[in-house]
Amino acid sequence: MKKEKKKTESVITEPSGNAWWAYGLGLLLLAFFVFEIYQPMLTGPFAFDDSYLPMLMPNGVEQPFTAWISGLRPVLMASYWGNTRLSGLEPEAFKLWNIWIHLCSAILVWLWARKLIQRFYPDAMGDAVSAFVALIFLLHPLQTESVSYVAGRSESLSGLLFLAALVTFLYHGPQAIGWLRALYVLLLFGAALLTKEHTAVFPLLLLLTDYFFYPGFSLEGIRKNWRVYLLIALGAIAGVFTTFRLLLNADSAGFRLKEFTWYQYFFTQCRSIVTYIQLFLFPVGQNVDHDQAISYTFFDHGTPLAILALLILLVGAWLVRKRFPLACYGVLVFLLLLAPTSSVIPIKDTLVERRMYLPLIGLCLVVAQFLLLLRIPRAAMLVIIGTISLVTGYTTYVRNHVWSSTISLWTDSAAKSPQKGRPTFQLAYAQYEAGSCVEAVNNYATVAQLEKPDYRLYADWALAADCAGRYDEALEKLRLGAALEDSAHVHATMGMILAKQGKSDEALTELAKAETLDATFAMVSFYRGNVYMQRKEYSKAIESYKHAIHLDPQNQTFQRSLAMAQRQGKE
Fold first, then answer.
1. Of the residues 158, 258, 348, 493, which has the fewest C-beta atoms closer than 10 A?
2. Would you give the distance in Å from CA 134 to the centre of its chain?
3. What is the pLDDT of residues 127-154, one digit of tens each?
4. CB neighbours of 249 closer than 8 A, spacing ≥ 6?
5. Is the peptide bond before 215 cis (omega within 30 degrees of 0)?
6. Are residues 527 and 502 in the same domain?
Protein backbone atom coordinates (compact mmCIF):
# COMPACT_ATOMS: atom_id res chain seq x y z
CA MET A 1 0.00 0.00 0.00
CA LYS A 2 1.43 3.34 -1.04
CA LYS A 3 1.85 6.03 1.55
CA GLU A 4 0.17 9.33 0.88
CA LYS A 5 2.56 12.11 0.03
CA LYS A 6 2.80 14.72 2.71
CA LYS A 7 1.30 18.01 1.60
CA THR A 8 3.84 20.77 1.25
CA GLU A 9 1.27 23.53 1.59
CA SER A 10 0.59 24.36 5.20
CA VAL A 11 -2.23 26.20 6.86
CA ILE A 12 -1.26 29.37 8.64
CA THR A 13 -2.82 29.70 12.05
CA GLU A 14 -3.91 33.19 12.94
CA PRO A 15 -3.43 34.46 16.50
CA SER A 16 -6.30 33.88 18.90
CA GLY A 17 -8.38 36.74 20.20
CA ASN A 18 -6.54 36.70 23.52
CA ALA A 19 -3.19 37.12 21.74
CA TRP A 20 -4.00 40.43 20.08
CA TRP A 21 -3.29 42.39 23.26
CA ALA A 22 0.31 41.16 23.09
CA TYR A 23 0.57 42.36 19.49
CA GLY A 24 -0.88 45.73 20.49
CA LEU A 25 1.55 46.13 23.38
CA GLY A 26 4.46 45.09 21.20
CA LEU A 27 3.43 47.65 18.57
CA LEU A 28 3.29 50.44 21.15
CA LEU A 29 6.74 49.57 22.46
CA LEU A 30 8.09 49.38 18.92
CA ALA A 31 6.58 52.76 18.05
CA PHE A 32 8.24 54.31 21.11
CA PHE A 33 11.57 52.71 20.13
CA VAL A 34 11.33 53.97 16.54
CA PHE A 35 10.44 57.52 17.56
CA GLU A 36 13.42 57.57 19.91
CA ILE A 37 15.70 56.38 17.11
CA TYR A 38 14.48 59.09 14.73
CA GLN A 39 14.19 61.80 17.38
CA PRO A 40 17.52 63.54 16.52
CA MET A 41 16.38 64.46 13.01
CA LEU A 42 13.16 66.11 14.20
CA THR A 43 15.06 69.33 14.98
CA GLY A 44 16.31 69.59 11.39
CA PRO A 45 14.82 72.10 8.94
CA PHE A 46 13.62 71.51 5.41
CA ALA A 47 16.62 70.53 3.28
CA PHE A 48 17.83 70.28 -0.31
CA ASP A 49 14.93 69.52 -2.73
CA ASP A 50 12.34 70.24 -0.03
CA SER A 51 12.36 73.81 -1.33
CA TYR A 52 10.71 72.59 -4.55
CA LEU A 53 7.73 71.10 -2.70
CA PRO A 54 4.48 73.04 -3.18
CA MET A 55 4.15 74.34 0.39
CA LEU A 56 7.57 76.05 0.13
CA MET A 57 6.99 77.57 -3.28
CA PRO A 58 5.97 81.26 -3.48
CA ASN A 59 2.27 81.51 -2.50
CA GLY A 60 2.17 77.71 -2.39
CA VAL A 61 0.22 77.52 0.87
CA GLU A 62 -2.55 79.73 -0.53
CA GLN A 63 -3.04 77.53 -3.60
CA PRO A 64 -6.28 75.48 -3.74
CA PHE A 65 -6.21 71.72 -3.27
CA THR A 66 -6.81 71.19 -7.00
CA ALA A 67 -3.60 73.08 -7.81
CA TRP A 68 -1.60 70.87 -5.43
CA ILE A 69 -2.73 67.63 -7.05
CA SER A 70 -2.59 68.75 -10.68
CA GLY A 71 0.90 67.35 -11.30
CA LEU A 72 2.32 63.86 -11.86
CA ARG A 73 2.21 62.71 -8.20
CA PRO A 74 -1.19 63.81 -6.88
CA VAL A 75 -1.38 61.35 -3.95
CA LEU A 76 2.03 62.47 -2.68
CA MET A 77 1.10 66.13 -3.02
CA ALA A 78 -2.23 65.51 -1.30
CA SER A 79 -0.30 64.19 1.72
CA TYR A 80 1.78 67.39 1.82
CA TRP A 81 -1.41 69.45 1.50
CA GLY A 82 -2.94 67.63 4.47
CA ASN A 83 0.27 68.09 6.45
CA THR A 84 0.28 71.83 5.71
CA ARG A 85 -3.36 72.29 6.67
CA LEU A 86 -2.92 70.44 9.98
CA SER A 87 0.42 71.83 11.15
CA GLY A 88 1.47 74.72 8.93
CA LEU A 89 5.07 74.78 7.78
CA GLU A 90 6.70 73.14 10.81
CA PRO A 91 9.35 70.71 9.46
CA GLU A 92 8.98 68.56 12.59
CA ALA A 93 5.33 67.82 11.79
CA PHE A 94 6.21 66.67 8.27
CA LYS A 95 8.91 64.41 9.65
CA LEU A 96 6.58 62.96 12.28
CA TRP A 97 4.20 61.98 9.49
CA ASN A 98 7.12 60.31 7.73
CA ILE A 99 7.87 58.22 10.80
CA TRP A 100 4.25 57.05 11.08
CA ILE A 101 4.23 56.14 7.39
CA HIS A 102 7.42 54.13 7.88
CA LEU A 103 6.04 52.35 10.93
CA CYS A 104 2.87 51.37 9.06
CA SER A 105 4.99 50.09 6.17
CA ALA A 106 6.95 47.89 8.58
CA ILE A 107 3.71 46.32 9.84
CA LEU A 108 2.79 45.48 6.26
CA VAL A 109 6.27 44.02 5.68
CA TRP A 110 5.68 41.76 8.68
CA LEU A 111 2.34 40.57 7.26
CA TRP A 112 3.99 39.98 3.86
CA ALA A 113 6.99 38.11 5.29
CA ARG A 114 4.85 36.06 7.68
CA LYS A 115 2.60 34.87 4.87
CA LEU A 116 5.52 33.80 2.68
CA ILE A 117 7.78 32.33 5.35
CA GLN A 118 5.05 30.21 6.86
CA ARG A 119 4.51 28.52 3.52
CA PHE A 120 7.67 26.58 4.35
CA TYR A 121 8.17 27.17 8.09
CA PRO A 122 4.71 27.11 9.76
CA ASP A 123 5.99 27.25 13.30
CA ALA A 124 7.15 29.63 15.98
CA MET A 125 10.59 29.91 14.36
CA GLY A 126 8.95 31.16 11.18
CA ASP A 127 7.03 33.76 13.19
CA ALA A 128 10.23 34.98 14.84
CA VAL A 129 12.07 35.33 11.54
CA SER A 130 9.07 37.14 10.01
CA ALA A 131 9.32 39.67 12.82
CA PHE A 132 13.06 39.95 12.11
CA VAL A 133 12.37 40.89 8.47
CA ALA A 134 10.01 43.66 9.57
CA LEU A 135 12.44 44.92 12.23
CA ILE A 136 15.37 45.18 9.84
CA PHE A 137 13.16 46.99 7.31
CA LEU A 138 12.07 49.36 10.07
CA LEU A 139 15.41 49.97 11.76
CA HIS A 140 18.03 49.77 9.00
CA PRO A 141 20.04 53.01 8.56
CA LEU A 142 19.57 52.84 4.78
CA GLN A 143 15.95 53.86 5.42
CA THR A 144 17.02 57.10 7.09
CA GLU A 145 16.96 59.22 3.95
CA SER A 146 13.40 58.16 3.07
CA VAL A 147 12.16 59.00 6.57
CA SER A 148 14.28 61.95 7.74
CA TYR A 149 14.14 63.80 4.42
CA VAL A 150 10.73 65.42 3.86
CA ALA A 151 11.01 65.00 0.08
CA GLY A 152 11.89 61.34 0.74
CA ARG A 153 8.20 60.74 1.46
CA SER A 154 7.83 59.90 -2.24
CA GLU A 155 9.65 56.66 -1.41
CA SER A 156 8.03 55.82 1.93
CA LEU A 157 4.44 56.71 1.01
CA SER A 158 4.58 54.94 -2.36
CA GLY A 159 6.16 52.00 -0.50
CA LEU A 160 3.31 51.95 2.03
CA LEU A 161 0.66 51.84 -0.70
CA PHE A 162 2.66 49.29 -2.70
CA LEU A 163 2.93 47.01 0.32
CA ALA A 164 -0.76 47.49 1.14
CA ALA A 165 -1.66 46.30 -2.36
CA LEU A 166 0.72 43.34 -2.04
CA VAL A 167 -0.64 42.25 1.35
CA THR A 168 -4.23 42.64 0.14
CA PHE A 169 -3.38 40.30 -2.71
CA LEU A 170 -1.57 37.75 -0.54
CA TYR A 171 -4.34 37.38 2.03
CA HIS A 172 -7.08 36.44 -0.44
CA GLY A 173 -7.43 32.95 1.10
CA PRO A 174 -7.06 29.51 -0.48
CA GLN A 175 -9.52 30.23 -3.27
CA ALA A 176 -8.86 32.31 -6.37
CA ILE A 177 -8.96 36.04 -5.77
CA GLY A 178 -12.42 37.56 -6.20
CA TRP A 179 -13.40 40.60 -8.22
CA LEU A 180 -13.88 42.86 -5.17
CA ARG A 181 -10.46 42.10 -3.65
CA ALA A 182 -8.88 42.40 -7.09
CA LEU A 183 -10.44 45.86 -7.34
CA TYR A 184 -8.97 46.80 -3.93
CA VAL A 185 -5.54 45.66 -5.14
CA LEU A 186 -5.92 47.74 -8.30
CA LEU A 187 -6.94 50.86 -6.36
CA LEU A 188 -4.01 50.57 -3.95
CA PHE A 189 -1.61 49.94 -6.83
CA GLY A 190 -3.00 52.98 -8.63
CA ALA A 191 -2.52 55.12 -5.51
CA ALA A 192 1.10 53.90 -5.24
CA LEU A 193 1.65 54.71 -8.90
CA LEU A 194 0.26 58.22 -8.40
CA THR A 195 2.70 58.67 -5.52
CA LYS A 196 5.83 57.63 -7.42
CA GLU A 197 6.22 55.99 -10.82
CA HIS A 198 8.77 53.32 -9.88
CA THR A 199 5.94 51.23 -8.38
CA ALA A 200 4.89 50.30 -11.94
CA VAL A 201 6.76 46.98 -11.44
CA PHE A 202 4.03 45.80 -9.03
CA PRO A 203 2.34 43.44 -11.58
CA LEU A 204 5.67 41.69 -12.16
CA LEU A 205 6.07 41.16 -8.42
CA LEU A 206 2.62 39.57 -8.22
CA LEU A 207 3.52 37.18 -11.05
CA LEU A 208 6.77 36.31 -9.31
CA THR A 209 4.99 35.72 -6.00
CA ASP A 210 2.29 33.52 -7.53
CA TYR A 211 4.93 31.46 -9.35
CA PHE A 212 7.09 30.91 -6.25
CA PHE A 213 4.46 30.30 -3.59
CA TYR A 214 1.03 29.45 -4.98
CA PRO A 215 1.30 26.50 -4.95
CA GLY A 216 5.03 26.66 -5.72
CA PHE A 217 7.14 26.88 -8.90
CA SER A 218 4.19 26.58 -11.29
CA LEU A 219 1.83 28.77 -13.28
CA GLU A 220 -1.24 27.44 -11.48
CA GLY A 221 -1.54 30.43 -9.15
CA ILE A 222 -1.19 32.87 -12.04
CA ARG A 223 -3.95 31.13 -13.98
CA LYS A 224 -6.16 30.97 -10.90
CA ASN A 225 -5.80 34.70 -10.16
CA TRP A 226 -6.48 35.88 -13.70
CA ARG A 227 -8.99 38.46 -12.44
CA VAL A 228 -6.40 40.56 -10.65
CA TYR A 229 -4.00 40.37 -13.60
CA LEU A 230 -6.72 41.49 -15.99
CA LEU A 231 -7.49 44.55 -13.88
CA ILE A 232 -3.86 45.35 -13.10
CA ALA A 233 -2.93 45.24 -16.78
CA LEU A 234 -4.90 48.48 -17.08
CA GLY A 235 -2.91 50.02 -14.23
CA ALA A 236 0.36 48.82 -15.74
CA ILE A 237 -0.49 50.51 -19.04
CA ALA A 238 -1.28 53.72 -17.16
CA GLY A 239 2.00 53.38 -15.28
CA VAL A 240 4.03 53.00 -18.46
CA PHE A 241 2.27 56.02 -19.97
CA THR A 242 2.84 58.14 -16.82
CA THR A 243 6.50 57.17 -16.62
CA PHE A 244 7.01 57.87 -20.32
CA ARG A 245 5.41 61.30 -19.96
CA LEU A 246 7.61 62.05 -16.94
CA LEU A 247 10.77 61.07 -18.80
CA LEU A 248 9.83 63.30 -21.72
CA ASN A 249 9.50 66.36 -19.47
CA ALA A 250 12.19 65.70 -16.85
CA ASP A 251 15.56 67.43 -17.02
CA SER A 252 17.27 65.02 -14.61
CA ALA A 253 16.17 61.68 -16.10
CA GLY A 254 15.47 60.04 -19.45
CA PHE A 255 17.31 59.13 -22.61
CA ARG A 256 17.95 62.78 -23.48
CA LEU A 257 20.45 63.23 -20.66
CA LYS A 258 23.73 64.56 -22.00
CA GLU A 259 25.88 63.31 -19.13
CA PHE A 260 25.85 59.65 -20.24
CA THR A 261 24.10 57.15 -22.49
CA TRP A 262 21.73 54.35 -21.47
CA TYR A 263 24.43 51.70 -21.63
CA GLN A 264 26.91 53.83 -19.66
CA TYR A 265 24.19 54.26 -17.04
CA PHE A 266 23.65 50.49 -17.02
CA PHE A 267 27.36 49.84 -16.46
CA THR A 268 27.35 52.38 -13.62
CA GLN A 269 24.22 50.90 -12.06
CA CYS A 270 25.74 47.43 -11.92
CA ARG A 271 28.36 48.93 -9.63
CA SER A 272 25.70 50.89 -7.72
CA ILE A 273 23.71 47.72 -7.03
CA VAL A 274 26.81 46.08 -5.57
CA THR A 275 27.28 49.18 -3.40
CA TYR A 276 23.66 48.97 -2.22
CA ILE A 277 24.24 45.37 -1.13
CA GLN A 278 27.41 46.42 0.70
CA LEU A 279 25.55 49.24 2.46
CA PHE A 280 22.84 46.80 3.48
CA LEU A 281 25.34 44.37 5.01
CA PHE A 282 27.78 46.99 6.33
CA PRO A 283 26.19 50.48 6.45
CA VAL A 284 29.49 52.33 6.54
CA GLY A 285 30.06 55.44 4.42
CA GLN A 286 26.43 56.51 4.08
CA ASN A 287 26.11 59.79 2.22
CA VAL A 288 23.23 62.01 1.15
CA ASP A 289 25.12 62.80 -2.07
CA HIS A 290 27.43 59.98 -3.15
CA ASP A 291 30.21 60.72 -5.63
CA GLN A 292 29.75 57.74 -7.95
CA ALA A 293 32.08 57.78 -10.96
CA ILE A 294 30.46 57.03 -14.33
CA SER A 295 31.48 53.88 -16.19
CA TYR A 296 31.79 55.34 -19.67
CA THR A 297 33.16 52.05 -20.99
CA PHE A 298 32.71 48.42 -19.99
CA PHE A 299 36.14 48.36 -18.32
CA ASP A 300 35.84 51.52 -16.20
CA HIS A 301 35.95 51.38 -12.38
CA GLY A 302 35.63 47.62 -12.02
CA THR A 303 32.44 47.28 -14.07
CA PRO A 304 33.27 43.73 -15.30
CA LEU A 305 33.64 42.51 -11.71
CA ALA A 306 30.32 44.09 -10.70
CA ILE A 307 28.48 42.54 -13.66
CA LEU A 308 30.09 39.16 -12.96
CA ALA A 309 29.09 39.34 -9.29
CA LEU A 310 25.48 40.15 -10.18
CA LEU A 311 25.34 37.35 -12.76
CA ILE A 312 26.67 34.85 -10.22
CA LEU A 313 24.10 36.10 -7.69
CA LEU A 314 21.22 35.88 -10.16
CA VAL A 315 22.11 32.56 -11.78
CA GLY A 316 23.08 31.00 -8.44
CA ALA A 317 19.80 32.07 -6.85
CA TRP A 318 17.80 30.58 -9.73
CA LEU A 319 19.65 27.29 -9.63
CA VAL A 320 18.86 26.79 -5.92
CA ARG A 321 15.34 28.22 -6.06
CA LYS A 322 13.65 25.01 -4.93
CA ARG A 323 16.12 24.33 -2.14
CA PHE A 324 16.23 27.93 -0.88
CA PRO A 325 13.02 29.51 -2.20
CA LEU A 326 12.98 32.48 0.17
CA ALA A 327 16.53 33.50 -0.70
CA CYS A 328 16.00 33.15 -4.45
CA TYR A 329 12.70 35.04 -4.29
CA GLY A 330 14.38 37.74 -2.17
CA VAL A 331 17.19 38.23 -4.71
CA LEU A 332 14.69 38.53 -7.56
CA VAL A 333 12.50 40.94 -5.56
CA PHE A 334 15.53 43.10 -4.75
CA LEU A 335 16.61 43.35 -8.39
CA LEU A 336 13.07 43.82 -9.68
CA LEU A 337 12.25 46.66 -7.28
CA LEU A 338 15.53 48.39 -8.12
CA ALA A 339 15.05 48.00 -11.87
CA PRO A 340 13.07 51.25 -12.46
CA THR A 341 15.95 53.36 -11.13
CA SER A 342 18.94 51.06 -11.60
CA SER A 343 18.80 49.60 -15.09
CA VAL A 344 18.95 51.37 -18.45
CA ILE A 345 16.83 54.51 -18.01
CA PRO A 346 19.39 57.24 -17.24
CA ILE A 347 18.95 59.33 -14.07
CA LYS A 348 21.40 62.11 -13.28
CA ASP A 349 22.04 60.90 -9.71
CA THR A 350 23.53 57.44 -10.05
CA LEU A 351 23.64 56.31 -6.40
CA VAL A 352 20.86 57.39 -4.04
CA GLU A 353 20.20 55.63 -0.76
CA ARG A 354 16.46 56.33 -0.61
CA ARG A 355 15.99 54.18 -3.72
CA MET A 356 16.59 51.21 -1.43
CA TYR A 357 13.44 51.80 0.61
CA LEU A 358 11.36 49.04 -1.01
CA PRO A 359 14.12 46.84 -2.50
CA LEU A 360 15.45 46.34 1.03
CA ILE A 361 12.65 43.82 1.69
CA GLY A 362 14.23 41.43 -0.81
CA LEU A 363 17.59 41.44 0.94
CA CYS A 364 15.86 41.04 4.32
CA LEU A 365 14.22 37.88 3.01
CA VAL A 366 17.60 36.51 1.88
CA VAL A 367 18.96 37.00 5.40
CA ALA A 368 15.80 35.37 6.78
CA GLN A 369 16.48 32.27 4.70
CA PHE A 370 19.97 31.92 6.18
CA LEU A 371 18.64 32.37 9.72
CA LEU A 372 16.10 29.60 9.15
CA LEU A 373 18.87 27.29 7.94
CA LEU A 374 20.78 27.63 11.21
CA ARG A 375 18.42 25.19 12.96
CA ILE A 376 19.21 26.54 16.41
CA PRO A 377 16.94 26.69 19.48
CA ARG A 378 14.28 29.40 19.39
CA ALA A 379 15.81 31.18 22.38
CA ALA A 380 19.15 31.47 20.59
CA MET A 381 17.37 32.71 17.48
CA LEU A 382 15.62 35.42 19.48
CA VAL A 383 18.96 36.50 20.95
CA ILE A 384 20.43 36.82 17.44
CA ILE A 385 17.39 38.73 16.17
CA GLY A 386 17.39 41.03 19.20
CA THR A 387 21.11 41.75 18.95
CA ILE A 388 21.00 42.53 15.23
CA SER A 389 17.94 44.75 15.72
CA LEU A 390 19.56 46.72 18.56
CA VAL A 391 22.80 47.24 16.65
CA THR A 392 20.88 48.27 13.53
CA GLY A 393 18.65 50.63 15.51
CA TYR A 394 21.64 52.27 17.20
CA THR A 395 23.35 52.77 13.84
CA THR A 396 20.20 54.46 12.54
CA TYR A 397 20.07 56.66 15.66
CA VAL A 398 23.64 57.80 15.01
CA ARG A 399 22.88 58.44 11.35
CA ASN A 400 19.88 60.57 12.29
CA HIS A 401 22.13 62.99 14.15
CA VAL A 402 23.55 63.94 10.74
CA TRP A 403 20.02 64.99 9.70
CA SER A 404 19.61 67.24 12.75
CA SER A 405 20.74 70.33 10.79
CA THR A 406 21.60 71.24 7.22
CA ILE A 407 25.15 72.17 8.24
CA SER A 408 25.81 68.75 9.81
CA LEU A 409 24.18 67.01 6.84
CA TRP A 410 26.30 68.75 4.22
CA THR A 411 29.46 68.78 6.31
CA ASP A 412 29.20 65.00 6.42
CA SER A 413 28.51 64.76 2.69
CA ALA A 414 31.24 67.21 1.65
CA ALA A 415 33.79 65.26 3.71
CA LYS A 416 32.77 61.99 2.05
CA SER A 417 32.52 63.44 -1.50
CA PRO A 418 35.44 65.91 -1.52
CA GLN A 419 35.73 65.93 -5.32
CA LYS A 420 32.04 66.63 -5.95
CA GLY A 421 30.93 70.25 -6.04
CA ARG A 422 27.28 69.93 -5.02
CA PRO A 423 27.76 68.87 -1.38
CA THR A 424 30.19 71.72 -0.75
CA PHE A 425 27.84 74.15 -2.51
CA GLN A 426 24.97 73.03 -0.29
CA LEU A 427 27.21 73.36 2.77
CA ALA A 428 28.13 76.91 1.77
CA TYR A 429 24.46 77.81 1.31
CA ALA A 430 23.60 76.32 4.73
CA GLN A 431 26.43 78.31 6.32
CA TYR A 432 25.21 81.50 4.65
CA GLU A 433 21.70 80.93 6.00
CA ALA A 434 23.14 80.32 9.47
CA GLY A 435 25.16 83.57 9.33
CA SER A 436 28.56 81.88 9.00
CA CYS A 437 29.31 84.02 5.98
CA VAL A 438 33.12 83.85 5.90
CA GLU A 439 32.98 80.04 5.93
CA ALA A 440 30.36 80.17 3.17
CA VAL A 441 32.58 82.38 0.99
CA ASN A 442 35.51 79.99 1.44
CA ASN A 443 33.39 76.98 0.49
CA TYR A 444 31.98 78.72 -2.59
CA ALA A 445 35.58 79.30 -3.64
CA THR A 446 36.21 75.57 -3.19
CA VAL A 447 33.22 74.76 -5.42
CA ALA A 448 34.64 77.02 -8.13
CA GLN A 449 37.79 74.89 -8.09
CA LEU A 450 35.84 71.62 -8.31
CA GLU A 451 33.56 72.52 -11.21
CA LYS A 452 33.01 75.20 -13.81
CA PRO A 453 31.22 78.11 -12.11
CA ASP A 454 27.72 78.94 -13.30
CA TYR A 455 25.38 81.85 -12.69
CA ARG A 456 23.86 80.37 -9.52
CA LEU A 457 27.28 79.86 -7.94
CA TYR A 458 28.32 83.45 -8.64
CA ALA A 459 25.00 84.83 -7.37
CA ASP A 460 25.09 82.89 -4.10
CA TRP A 461 28.80 83.55 -3.67
CA ALA A 462 28.10 87.28 -4.01
CA LEU A 463 25.38 87.14 -1.34
CA ALA A 464 27.76 85.37 1.07
CA ALA A 465 30.50 87.94 0.36
CA ASP A 466 28.01 90.74 0.95
CA CYS A 467 27.01 89.10 4.24
CA ALA A 468 30.69 88.93 5.21
CA GLY A 469 31.13 92.64 4.43
CA ARG A 470 33.29 91.98 1.37
CA TYR A 471 31.36 94.33 -0.94
CA ASP A 472 33.96 94.61 -3.71
CA GLU A 473 34.27 90.82 -3.88
CA ALA A 474 30.49 90.53 -4.03
CA LEU A 475 30.27 92.99 -6.92
CA GLU A 476 33.03 91.13 -8.75
CA LYS A 477 31.11 87.83 -8.51
CA LEU A 478 27.90 89.50 -9.64
CA ARG A 479 29.61 90.92 -12.72
CA LEU A 480 30.93 87.44 -13.54
CA GLY A 481 27.41 86.10 -13.08
CA ALA A 482 25.94 88.82 -15.31
CA ALA A 483 28.35 87.80 -18.06
CA LEU A 484 26.74 84.34 -17.98
CA GLU A 485 23.13 85.41 -17.43
CA ASP A 486 22.08 89.05 -17.54
CA SER A 487 19.08 89.08 -15.20
CA ALA A 488 17.04 91.42 -13.04
CA HIS A 489 18.21 89.53 -9.97
CA VAL A 490 21.91 90.21 -10.56
CA HIS A 491 21.45 93.93 -11.26
CA ALA A 492 19.08 94.35 -8.31
CA THR A 493 21.61 92.70 -6.01
CA MET A 494 24.36 94.93 -7.38
CA GLY A 495 22.17 97.94 -6.66
CA MET A 496 21.60 96.75 -3.11
CA ILE A 497 25.35 96.31 -2.47
CA LEU A 498 26.29 99.64 -4.07
CA ALA A 499 23.77 101.32 -1.79
CA LYS A 500 25.53 99.80 1.22
CA GLN A 501 28.75 101.40 -0.04
CA GLY A 502 27.00 104.76 -0.16
CA LYS A 503 27.00 104.87 -3.98
CA SER A 504 23.33 105.72 -4.32
CA ASP A 505 23.45 107.07 -7.89
CA GLU A 506 25.19 103.94 -9.15
CA ALA A 507 22.74 101.83 -7.15
CA LEU A 508 19.73 103.52 -8.80
CA THR A 509 21.31 102.95 -12.22
CA GLU A 510 21.64 99.21 -11.58
CA LEU A 511 18.08 99.05 -10.25
CA ALA A 512 16.83 100.77 -13.38
CA LYS A 513 18.58 98.10 -15.48
CA ALA A 514 16.98 95.39 -13.37
CA GLU A 515 13.51 96.91 -13.86
CA THR A 516 14.07 97.02 -17.60
CA LEU A 517 14.83 93.28 -17.59
CA ASP A 518 11.90 92.34 -15.32
CA ALA A 519 9.32 94.93 -14.28
CA THR A 520 7.56 92.39 -12.03
CA PHE A 521 10.57 91.66 -9.80
CA ALA A 522 9.40 93.16 -6.49
CA MET A 523 12.87 93.34 -4.92
CA VAL A 524 13.83 96.10 -7.38
CA SER A 525 11.24 98.45 -5.92
CA PHE A 526 12.13 97.40 -2.39
CA TYR A 527 15.84 98.10 -2.88
CA ARG A 528 14.99 101.40 -4.57
CA GLY A 529 12.93 102.33 -1.54
CA ASN A 530 15.92 101.56 0.69
CA VAL A 531 18.12 103.84 -1.42
CA TYR A 532 15.63 106.67 -1.08
CA MET A 533 15.43 106.09 2.66
CA GLN A 534 19.22 106.54 2.84
CA ARG A 535 18.85 109.78 0.93
CA LYS A 536 15.93 110.81 3.21
CA GLU A 537 13.67 111.19 0.19
CA TYR A 538 10.74 109.70 2.07
CA SER A 539 8.00 110.38 -0.46
CA LYS A 540 9.92 108.50 -3.14
CA ALA A 541 10.67 105.70 -0.67
CA ILE A 542 6.96 105.39 0.18
CA GLU A 543 6.08 105.23 -3.51
CA SER A 544 8.69 102.51 -4.13
CA TYR A 545 7.59 100.41 -1.15
CA LYS A 546 3.95 100.67 -2.23
CA HIS A 547 4.89 99.42 -5.67
CA ALA A 548 6.83 96.50 -4.12
CA ILE A 549 3.76 95.59 -2.04
CA HIS A 550 1.59 95.79 -5.14
CA LEU A 551 3.86 93.18 -6.77
CA ASP A 552 4.13 91.01 -3.62
CA PRO A 553 1.22 91.76 -1.24
CA GLN A 554 2.14 89.04 1.29
CA ASN A 555 5.68 90.26 1.98
CA GLN A 556 5.84 91.40 5.61
CA THR A 557 9.27 93.03 5.18
CA PHE A 558 7.89 95.33 2.49
CA GLN A 559 4.98 96.35 4.73
CA ARG A 560 7.22 97.07 7.72
CA SER A 561 9.52 99.19 5.55
CA LEU A 562 6.55 101.16 4.21
CA ALA A 563 5.31 101.86 7.75
CA MET A 564 8.76 103.07 8.78
CA ALA A 565 9.01 105.36 5.74
CA GLN A 566 5.58 106.82 6.49
CA ARG A 567 6.52 107.47 10.14
CA GLN A 568 9.80 109.15 9.28
CA GLY A 569 8.15 111.14 6.52
CA LYS A 570 5.83 112.73 9.10
CA GLU A 571 8.57 113.70 11.52
1. 258
2. 20
3. 889 999 999 999 999 999 999 999 999 9
4. none
5. yes
6. yes
